[in-house]
Amino acid sequence: MAVVQIVHGENLTFEEVSDKVLNKVLSDGRGSSHTDVVFVIYQEKSIKTAERAERGSKLGIVFNQIQPGHRIKNWKRILASTETKAKLTKFMAENWKELRQSEKLHDVILMVTSGERCFRFTKDDVTEITELRSTHKEADTRMMIHVNHAAASYRNVVVISEDTDVFIILLSLHS
Q1: Which domain covers residue 144, as residue numbers?
Q2: Which one of 75, 80, 117, 166 is CB 3.0 to 4.6 Å from 161, fit for a cystine?
Q3: What gap in Å lies between CA 111 and CA 65, rounded to an integer?
């Protein structure tokens, strides 16, 4: 969600937000032939529920369904809602499957989580990667599954995250 929160969604449509996030992901991964996007799994009953409520998740705007052309009026309140963030990440993963989005990939392999599932996007194809299916709720730990998967095929794996927890976990895994 760090990349999503960097994008200023105010007065954009959900489709435009999705485009901006994909462009940012591809820009951050430029020069890489493989990029993974790992989203949090938002669940109603979670140890994080109290923390999110404290941060104002109950004051967030909840959408029954995210429509591509809907213009966003209050981005901060949308991001305050756990339920809407879950729908937004699912919307983006579905939106990125579209042909006009896949053409942006060129020769890049893009792995994207959506709920417990993970999909491999190329300019020609979208397939589910069952070995990356995970029930890990936190992106911090779920990312490590993706790091391990990428390390099996690539000599160098670069992780971009502003989260200190990710850095600490990666240090502990470094051999």
Answers
A1: 2-173
A2: 166
A3: 24
